[in-house]
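For the sake of transparency, this paper describes our internal protein records without simplification. An entry from our holdings is shown next, in its original layout:
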Amino acid sequence: MFIYKSMKKQVAKTVFLVLFGTSPLIKILDFLIVNEDFDYSMKDIASLSGVGYATLKFFWSKLEKNNIIIKTRIIGKAKMYKLNFANPVVNRLKDFYWDITKQAIRKEINKELLIKA
């Protein structure tokens, strides 16, 4: 995770967000991949990923129709969701995500080793 300092606050961004930008869809995918072990309500996904709830609702149905996300259970009135790892495209996206993260880490390690040498 890279940390970028601005005059007002520090902002932490994953390599994925640094490379592909911070559009709402990219932020949602980033959040769901990093937190793949858990399921979340739409409200939690929106707030924890930094996307407005109305914005999330704008493209949520497309994610469901394309089996990118699945509903896992219902708790009270809240429907819980997570990425659909039964979908091969989602698995390839996850592999791609972690490959670019590993590549960035290796690059940073090599840079550190060159500095120390």
Q: What stands out?
A: The mean pLDDT is 88. The CA atoms of residues 28 and 49 lie 6 Å apart.
